Amino acid sequence: MTIERVPQIHYPKADIGRRGMALGLDFLGAWLISSILGSNQIGIQFVQILVFIFCWLILRVVVVYNNQGQSLGRWAFNLKVLEVQDGEISGRIPTLRSLLKREAIIGFGALLVSIALNNIRVNFTAILLLLPLAIDCGAALSDNQMRQALHDRYAGTFIVSSRRGYSLDIKIQRLVDKLLRNVRR
Questions:
Q1: Which residues form the domain of 134?
Q2: Which residue in 7, 61, 123, 155 is a FRET match for 95, CA 20 to 30 A apart?
Q3: CB neighbours of residue 38 within 10 Å
Q4: Would you list the DSSP string of the chain?
């Protein structure tokens, strides 16, 4: 009797552009809420930081855990996060612990971007706060096989394309194509 290896189910890799747009949409939601509840003073606002962290955890951990691996941004762009075990995609939604580890890393980078956006008009060197997020997410560009960012590697997660979602990128592309055709006439 021989042991046969069951072939792995193929999950389509999510392209970097859609992943970036999904992250941007989630960031925009958390940042807008924290900016509204923060004050207009210059400098680091601790209440605003706490509101951002709270919103980020709700949008990127609680919603993902309860919504088949999709946050609002991932739902809008037909993406979902899955668990990776032994270098293979398991097809399961990550555990709450894995999601917390993942979002703590990327959330810290997003928080620094939020602080930079709020202070860039006063101090242009605040743009350097974008570097941690760029380094973290830029690792996905160098990983040709799995396209995992540093936070994905650490938490054992993987972003895949999904059939469930709104297809916002496709709808925007159709709208732009339609506008370009109308302009050419």
A1: 16-184
A2: 7
A3: 18
A4: --PPPPPPPP-PBPPHHHHHHHHHHHHHHHHHHHHHHS-S-SS--HHHHHHHHHHHHIIIIIHHHHTTT--HHHHHTTEEEEEEETTEE--SPPPHHHHHHHHHHHHHHHHHHHHHHHHTTT-GGGGGGGHHHHHHHHHHHH-TTT---HHHHHHTEEEEE-SSS--HHHHHHHHHHHHHHHHH-
Q: Kindly state whether residue 9 falls inside one of the protein's structural domains.
A: no
pLDDT tens, position by position, 30-52: 999 998 877 666 666 888 899 99
Q: What is the mean pLDDT of residues 15-26?
A: 94
Give the model's pLDDT for residue 5.
63
Mean pLDDT of the chain: 89
Q: Is the pTM here over 0.85, yes or no?
A: yes
Domain presence at residue 1: no
Half-sphere exposure of 176 (CA within 13 A, CB side): 6
Give the number of domains in the chain. Answer: 1
161 part of a folded domain: yes
